[in-house]
Design brief:
The protein is an all-alpha fold. It is 75% helix and 0% strand.
C-alpha cells in the first residue's frame, strides 16, 4: 500500500478508535461514580449549570477518558502507520488536546482539573503510545 495512503488511514483509524474509547469511558462513568444529586448531565447546558455540584471524584473518569482515549488513538496510529510513527501519534495527541482546550472553554470545570487534564492527558499519552509502538515489531 502507498505509504501516504497508509499513514492517512492510520490517522483516521486513530481518531476513530480514540473517540470511541473516550466516549465509551464517559458513557460508563455515571454507572461507576454517579453524578451528584440534582445534576443533569444529558446536555452541555445542563452540565454547565450543575458543574458547581461536582466533587473531585467526578472528574476521575473524564480524565481517564481523555488520557486513555488519546493513548488508544495514538497507539492505533503509531502501530498502523507506514512511517513517521511518532509524528503521527503526536498529531492524534494534538487533535485530542484541541478537543480538551475546547472543553475547558465550554464547561466551567475547576482550574486544577483543567490544568491536570491539559498537561497530562494528551501529549504525554501520545508520547507513551509512540514509545510503546516503536518497541513493537510488526
Amino acid at each position: 500500500m502507498n505509504p501516504i495512503l497508509r499513514n492517512t488511514l492510520a490517522v483516521i483509524a486513530g481518531l476513530v478508535i480514540g473517540s470511541i474509547v473516550n466516549m465509551s469511558i464517559i458513557l460508563i462513568s455515571g454507572s461507576i461514580i454517579p453524578p451528584p444529586n440534582g445534576a443533569d448531565v444529558t446536555t452541555t447546558e445542563s452540565l454547565q449549570a450543575s458543574m458547581h455540584l461536582f466533587e473531585p471524584k467526578h472528574f476521575l473518569f473524564p480524565f481517564l477518558a481523555h488520557a486513555i482515549g488519546t493513548f488508544a488513538g495514538a497507539l492505533t496510529t503509531a502501530l498502523s502507520a507506514a512511517s513517521h510513527k511518532t509524528k503521527l501519534a503526536f498529531i492524534i495527541g494534538a487533535f485530542f488536546l484541541f478537543g480538551g482546550i475546547t472543553m475547558v472553554f465550554t464547561l466551567p470545570s475547576p482550574i486544577w482539573f483543567s490544568a491536570v487534564d491539559l498537561v497530562l492527558a494528551y501529549l504525554p499519552m501520545a508520547y507513551l503510545a509512540s514509545k510503546i509502538a516503536s518497541k513493537k515489531k510488526i
